[in-house]
Amino acid sequence: MPRELPGLYWDKEKQRYFPLTSSRRSQVVGPNTSTKLQSAPQARTGESKRHRNRSLLRAREDARLSFRTTHKDKLMHQISCFQVAQTSHVASSSTPSLTGCAITAFQSVSYNNNVHSFAGDTGGWFYSSVIGRDEPVTGHHASHGWRPEFMIRQISSICISGSRCIATSFGPESKILHFPLDLDSEDIRVTRVNNRSARDIWTADLQGTRLVLGTNDQAVVIDDVADRATVCFMKTGSDVFAVTQDNNIVYTGSRAGIVQRFDSRIPSTKGDRIFSDLNTTQNNSVTNLKIFYDWQLLTSNIDGHLAMFDLRFPGNRTPVISFTGNINTYTTKTPITVDPHEQFLFAAGQDRRIRLWSLRTGGPPLVSPANVFQKPFEDPIRALQVVEEQQGVLGLWATSGAALYKYNLGQRMGEESETMQC
Questions:
Q1: Which residues contact 376 (CB under 8 A, 6 or more apart)?
Q2: pTM for this structure?
Q3: From the centroid of its chain, how far is CA 118?
Q4: Are 376 and 353 contacting, i.e. CB atoms less than 8 angstroms apart?
Q5: In whole angstroms, what separates CA 281 from the centre of its chain?
Q6: Residue 194 near residue 231, CB atoms below 8 Å
Q7: Residue pLDDT, tens place only, 161-171
């Protein structure tokens, strides 16, 4: 039996020692190496199978989590719908009007840790109120805080963007009231549209510095409302009751029941008729337009019809979602509003009732036996707005006659406001 020597191996055929690093060692150990090389692909195949199994398990777990998240989101929305439908806490506020005229427009916004509220009435008075965010809003409005700022003709609309509030008047001499939220940096002023053909401002929409007015037979676009640098007239052929804008695109809704789309970058542009047959006349006036989710357009008509359309398919006349149960036959001033999270729709009917819907599901209104929205107002409802006073705490403002009403959404009489998971 040959002895084992360090660094050498014994070759039985040659009957002698060879170094372990020589080629002879490679030939001897070749079969073992070959075995290892042959087993490598099998190892990689097994590893690949295990990787695929792990990926499949991970995908299944992600799917389960996604389903759980979607299901949870849907469930939370249903709970929020139930909470809002159960609202029974409402408070009325004394009128800000000096003459007892009906309030026609109302807007509220938080700016620099203060709550700025504005109202306008049929007598042409424009009122403002500024209180701290920590003060009780309803109690403040019920006792004091409102002051008359300016008088023009009947206030037809109020809109706010950034640090600027705009109020418009209805009548042969269309006036625009510029009211800065920061009075220390800018003064209150009144301007007019320098065109005799532009009168009767029915509505307005302000985004940034661009102001769009709905007037008789046309929409008026003022690119920079502060300097009035460029004024563009968009002919519609019918009185414009509703306007909204998305960047450079302007949408109008007219007395004739037609929704048109304009590009404000093109002067003297001709609007495209959308969501309707080009060869028919609707005769169902469009009273409100609002854009949601970046690609959906909510429309309301004078017959009470409420529907959501897909802006990506302007030729499709079939709405994505319909909201049933609203009542109207001839009133052009029937406001609608949504909450800041775009979950709920509120609409005022000709029967002087407020109804609410889920923007996700549409269909009939959300109702409850304890719902205060079932009770009609004494006077027509002329303005609606939902504000988020605190994180998750929503309030609905409504005007009827010369009074303001505040609904604490999701709150019942004798309960504190609860945070809603929208």
A1: 351, 352, 353
A2: 0.80
A3: 21
A4: yes
A5: 30
A6: yes
A7: 999 999 999 88
Cα 104–Cα 105–Cα 109 angle in degrees, nearest 5:
160
d(CA 102, CA 381): 10
376's tokens: 């009609």
DSSP label at residue 164:
E
Closest CA to 177 of 128, 250, 215: 128
Amino acid in the structure at residue 361 = T
Q: Kindly report, residue by residue over 291-308, the tens digit of the pLDDT.
A: 988 899 999 999 999 999
Maximum Cα–Cα distance for the chain, whole Å? 126
Taking the C-alpha atoms of residue 172 and residue 345, their distance in angstroms, rounded to an integer, is: 34
Q: What is the DSSP secondary structure assignment for residue 28, as one 8-state letter?
A: H
Residue bearing tokens 């052929």: 237
Pick from 383, 335, 397, 338: nearest CA to 137? 397
Residues 331-343 have pLDDT tens digits of 999 999 999 999 9
What letters, b where the CB count within 10 A reaches 16 and e where it falls short, cover 266-296? eeebebeebbbeeeeebebbbbbbbeeeeeb
Distance CA 262, CA 244 (A): 11
